[in-house]
Amino acid sequence: MHYEGPIYRPPSEAHSLLIQATVGCPHNRCTFCMTYKNGPRFRIRKPDEIKADILEAREDHGEGVRTLFFPAGNTIAMKTDDLCEICQFSRKIFPNLERITVYGSSQFIHKKGPDDLRRLADAGLSRIHVGLESGDDVFRPFFIGEA
């Protein structure tokens, strides 16, 4: 399987299979997140590359995978058709899959809109982890480590 740059996952994804669909983060300006400040630059992997990793993971882990997480800064930024395709493929390859999760900023979720989000849910995407940032000067030092 192909991994590039730092791979972080929230604690709720501790037992999830990790398949990298995107690399880096397209926004990369959140004050609370330093994950991709030194690269790599954001890019979206080709669906065929992602599918190859999913097939390799099935060889390594069998069909019993129950949770799948697509890490990196903003997997929701993928084209809706491509993300639907890999979600559907994942559900086919792992018939016991209960949850598929991605990271997504509110900006990119908003760009998708309700119709695309419904399509993604229908394709099997079940959770989006969102990071929130406060612009309040009272709280800002806590987020950037100055407090």
Q: What's this, in brief?
A:
This protein is α/β, with parallel strands linked by helices and 147 residues long.
What does the model show?
The structure is a single chain. The protein has four helices and six strands. The protein is α/β, with parallel strands linked by helices. It has one domain (11-143): Transcription Regulator spoIIAA (2-Layer Sandwich), CATH 3.30.750. Strands 1-4-5-6 form a four-stranded parallel β-sheet, with no helix packed on it. It has a two-stranded antiparallel sheet with strand order 2-3. Helix 2 links the parallel strand 4 and strand 5. The protein starts with 16 loop residues before the first strand and ends with a helix. 28% of the residues are buried.
Instruction: Describe the strand arrangement of the main beta sheet, using strand numbers.
Output: 1-4-5-6
> What percent strand?
5-15%
| Mean pLDDT reading | 88
Q: Please trace the helix and strand order, writing H or E for each element.
A: EEEHEHEHEH
Largest sheet: 4 strands, parallel
How many structural units, i.e. domains?
1
Shape: globular
